[in-house]
Design brief:
The chain has 78 residues and is mostly helical. It has a single domain, classed as ACP-like (Non-ribosomal Peptide Synthetase Peptidyl Carrier Protein, Chain A, Orthogonal Bundle), CATH 1.10.1200.10. Helix content is 60%, strand content 0%. The protein has 4 helices and no strands.
């Protein structure tokens, strides 16, 4: 599975949305389902996927689908 697909899946599950409803317009502060609880579910899912804890800067900087994908990609580059 590509990082783009993993990101879409993780975000959809955290927001309780269908994957086809998650796209480039899915953003914190814009997407109604992306509240603080959904953000925490996403952070936990990312930590599980990456096998490590996220630092606070990463947690607050993830605000859209592209950010989730970038986080997955950067972990592979490390």
């Amino acid at each position: 599975m590509s990082n783009a697909q993993k990101a879409r899946t993780l975000l959809a599950e955290a927001l309780n949305l269908a994957e086809h409803d998650v796209d480039g317009t899915t953003m914190i502060g814009v997407t109604q389902q992306w509240d603080s609880l959904a953000h925490m579910r996403l952070m936990l899912a990312l930590e599980e996927e990456l096998g490590s804890e996220l630092d606070m800067e990463s947690v607050v900087n993830i605000a859209n689908l592209s950010d989730v994908e970038a986080m997955l990609t950067s972990s592979q580059d490390a």
